[in-house]
Amino acid sequence: MIRTAPIGRSLLAALGLTGCFYVEEINQRPAADIRAGSADPVHRGDLVELDAVASDPEGHFLTYTWRVYACTDALSFETCDQEPFYVDADDHASFPAPIRRRETSDPVESLRVVLEVFDELGATAKPMEELVIPVLNASPTLQLDRSSRYGYVVGTPIDLFALVGDPDDGAATLEPLAWEVLGPAGASYTLVDLDVGQPANEAQAQFGKRFTPDGEGEWEIRVTARDPLDAEAVQTLMFAVAQDGPPCFAQLSPIVPPDGNVLPLSAQTLFQVPVVVDDLDVYPPVASDAVLGTTRFQWSLQAPGQTGHTEIAGAVGHSFAIDPVSYTPGDVLELRVEIFDRNNTTIPCIDGEQSCSVISEPTCIQRQTWRVEIR
Predict the structure, then answer these.
(1) d(CA 227, CA 204)
(2) In this structure, is the dihedral angle defined by the CA atoms of residues 35, 37, 39 and 45, taken in order, positive or negative?
(3) Is a pLDDT exceeding 80 seen at residue 2?
(4) Which of 126, 123, 116, 113 shows the shortest CA–CA distance to 61?
């Protein structure tokens, strides 16, 4: 009789284990980085653009949380506002850099940016991404201009204008402008405040000075604008100041005939100088301007048969009339007018010269003669 060996309990137990084991896969954390939209320096008030650059190993959907803090020194969080001024939940952040901290009113000098990235199963990128952004103080803006009604002549006023602004703190925070005048050696000047209007842009302010130089040559006006953080803008104006030039005939009536020709005269004729140009003594006069004066006129006549011109007493206006009835037909006479400004510069030409310029400039003359024949 054959006996079989009994099956061991360990083997039965092993044969009864016919299932399989399942171990859940571990969710991996996403990776994240912060990318700045520009490499340009950031000033207070500038728009800051940041992007979250993130990925997930399993391709899970990601969510974002931005927090940005205004700081004095973002490397020391105790110098930052405790509450963020900007919070967002997008992969792109866009915000203006604050001017001042909310909690202390101190100027913002840096930003602390914190970015947290989560996947849909709750895994968080570790460590949190942080970025420190230095924030610069913008310098003031400064524009200069000048104006002279009198041709930049010695002893006459020149109006100077300064338009200032400050992109972050505003023009009202700027220190008083510093005006510096550099001129010819030994020359004096006056510089007084000039009342000017204010621009429509409230972020700007305008100031004026009335500058009166007492010497000819090159002058430089240097203006400095400085903000509360000692950032400054410097601009200069350079211009030449000259002595008062001689007056010049601008119009004559009637037209002077060419040299060697005569102007036939058969009826009473008014000879006149309608317009004289000059730095200061013009004609017609400008009564409303206390600086401007009036051209002085001097008329003279060389009668038929005479040599040399004789000043006409009382003829001091800009015109003089000749009536042919006072002469005989065929008579030839010369009527001359000379002009002077306040300098009363002597006309250097000899009496026989029909026209003359004290500066030897043919386009600017101070003497003109009409040679007239009575008909």
Answers:
(1) 13
(2) negative
(3) no
(4) 123
DSSP class per residue in 271-323: EEEEEEE-SSEEBS--TT-SS-EE-EEEEEEE-TT--S-EE-TT--SSEEEE-
State both tokens at 121: 């199963």
User: Alpha-carbon distance 253 to 263, whole Å?
Assistant: 12
Alpha-carbon distance of 201 to 161, in angstroms, equals: 16
Conformational region of residue 250, where left means phi above 0, alpha means psi within -120 to 50, and beta covers everything else? alpha
What are 47's two structure tokens? 């728009």
Confidence of residue 24 (pLDDT cuts 50, 70, 90): low
Q: What is the Cα 3 distance to its own chain's centre? A: 118
The burial of 118, by beta-carbon neighbours within 10 Å (0-12 exposed, 13-18 middle, 19 or more buried), is given as buried
Question: What is the full DSSP assignment across 312-361?
Answer: -TT--SSEEEE-GGGS-TT-EEEEEEEEE-TT-PPP-S-TT-SSB-TTS-
Q: pLDDT category, 276, cuts 50, 70, 90? A: very high
Residue 178 Cα to chain centre, angstroms: 17
Helices (H), the chain: 9-16
In the chain, what percentage of residues exceed pLDDT 70? 94
How far apart (Å, rounded) are the C-alpha atoms in residues 112 and 78? 11
Q: Are 28 and 60 in contact (CB under 8 A)?
A: no
Amino acid at 166: D
One-letter identity of residue 33? D
Measured distance CA(292)–CA(150) in Å, rounded: 8
Q: How far apart are CA 211 and CA 66, in angstroms?
A: 56
The residue among 367, 374, 270, 373 whose CA lies nearest residue 322 is 270
- Distance (Å, rounded) from C-alpha 291 to C-alpha 226? 36
Contact 336, 302 (CB under 8 A): yes
**Identity (one letter) of the amino acid at 248?**
C
Q: What is the DSSP string of 243-259?
A: PPPPPEEEEEESPPPPT
Core vs surface per residue 229-245: b (16+ CB within 10 A) or e: bebebeeebeeebeebb
3-state class (DSSP) for residue 94 = strand
